[in-house]
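Subgroup meeting minutes
Present: P.N., E.W., G.H.
Scribe: E.W.

1. P.N. recapped why we're keeping a running log of single-chain structure predictions: easier to compare across weeks, and new members can see raw inputs and outputs side by side.
2. G.H. added today's entry (414 aa).
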Amino acid sequence: MAKQGAKTTMPRLRFPAFSESGDWRVGPLAQLATVVAGQSPAGANYNEVGEGLPFYQGKSEFGSIYLDEPVKWTTQITKTAARGDILMSVRAPVGALNVTTQEICIGRGLAAIKPEAEKWFLYYLLESISGSIIGTGGSVFDSINKDQIEKLRLSWPADRAEQQEIAECLTSLDELIAAQGRKVETLKAHKRGLMQQLFPREGETRPRLRFPEFRNAPEWELHRLGDIASISKGKGISKADIAVEGRTPCIRYGELYTLYGEVIEQPLSRTNLPVKELVLSQAGDVIVPASGETKEDIATSAAVLGAGVALGGDLNIIRLNADGRFFSYYLNGVKRRALAKVAQGDTVVHLYPRQLEQLDVVIPVDKREQDHIADCLSSLDTRITAESHQLAALKNQKQGLMQQLFPVPEVRGA
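Output recorded in log:
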């Protein structure tokens, strides 16, 4: 194991067969690959009937370039990436990567890196430094050009066998991550389908799937939400009011979009604001945002299982004699479109208590049926959470391994 300084040509972790192979080489990317900058076809030289080559401008997210089914083809071939070439995003976020599986025409948002080194080794080497690439304006959100890509300073082992060993190790881990990701997505899809079965369709009062003990139970009862629930608003809790060691657990409306699902067992934020200045939950309250960017976003709800949780401003609080978990799943499932429909506004969307009060809802007569549905979906959520944590752990393991297998980048940009 080599000593690791701020700059080094030796990784911290090396396979035993190569422990005595000496320092890695250091040089520009141009020594490992040829770089081709993308160029968009002139004018309207595109078609949607599959003539020519599929054309991609480059859509990147979370460090990867996503190549969905092409919607454009071009017969005016400008710059191309061959099967096996590494694609790099040259616009924000620069450094996002993918590997082509077919020949494509690439636009100005992409560059094709044609490896002379072992392909997957070079891919992972670039992935390991992608967060350190600095564009022309000195920011990771700026563009990067062909010349800068070619001059990226990299370290690599001279022995191609070592390159392959590293690539095979990380490829096998990526395969585990992909399999785990598919498992999570399959469970989420199963949950979505189950929710469509367990709740009546809009305008109906009987679900398509019922638990055996309720198959002969009466149809669900139709109510106007305002007739069976009290609907109120939370009270403002600013970001500055959040305290890690705060006395009172709290929920701010923006957190519904980023931190929580349909059920909130343990709030993640706390505040030290005086209790008399707060609006506190009762166990089973259902909260819905009062404002959002789109009507689809605002159609989001969560059941707060605990009492005494401070509920921030821009939150509608629905308090009714029903299982809050059941009602939250209902609103997030078959009722989501109807909930979005009553929201108002375009640039900023608002949802007020008086609008929620007019919402037609159906509820099982027997509260035990509500509990069964809630328990079923909560159990599925528990498994999804566990599998998602496993996915995150695998991704963290990969990041940690890459930090060990590759030396610290010599420079942050070109």
